[in-house]
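[stage:ingest] chain + small molecule (PRP)
[stage:ingest] validated
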Amino acid sequence: MKYITIALAKGRLAFEALSLLEKIGITCDEIKDKTSRKLIFVNEELKLKFFLAKANDVPTYVEYGAADIGVAGKDTLLEEGRKMYEVLDLGIGKCKMCVAGPSASKSLLHHGGLIRVATKYPNIAKDYFYNKKHQTVEIIKLNGSIELAPIVGLSEVIVDIVETGSTLRENGLVILEEICNISARMVVNEVSMKMEHERISKIIKDLKQILL
Ligand code: PRP
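[stage:predict] done
[stage:export] tokens:
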């Protein structure tokens, strides 16, 4: 039997996804050892391999077939725009993709003037402002701590994920517009879906059952 390889987005999401998998009898205790520097973990009995990757790289591994299955946030999937099947909403890692900023920026958004938008998600921001709102904006790509941008005068607004809202609150920022809901999804490589149809569909079916 061939191994089925599962790529998980590193961090809290991976652990939440692993507990869902545990509920359907798919276990991998070794991966939970946070001190380990190992990259690949194997469940010999089930012929499964697991690896942890940077969230943005999960869709890449899955599209190229280096992983048969992936777990990543919808934010990452939208941003990366890669070709694969999105088979399941895992209902974990729930948050919202939002336009946020100081409340004074609300009128700038409404007047449709040229504003600067700082974000880790340039493709999502472009799609929202250009295709949905038909507003020309300048997108400034950042890699983290996006909330800093409007505070230090780099941009008028940001496009970022909001979970509890505390980062915005603690920095005097508010949600100005909601773009979409985000949660973790299971994705499958298109060829793997055909070649390993039986085993992969069973995983999807079992997960659906416990997600009901
Ligand atoms: C994310 C996001 C926000 C924050 C939202 O950042 O970019 O900054 O979490 O969460 P909250 O609404 O619960 O405050 P993350 O912690 O992933 O780090 P980053 O700044 O490197 O993007």
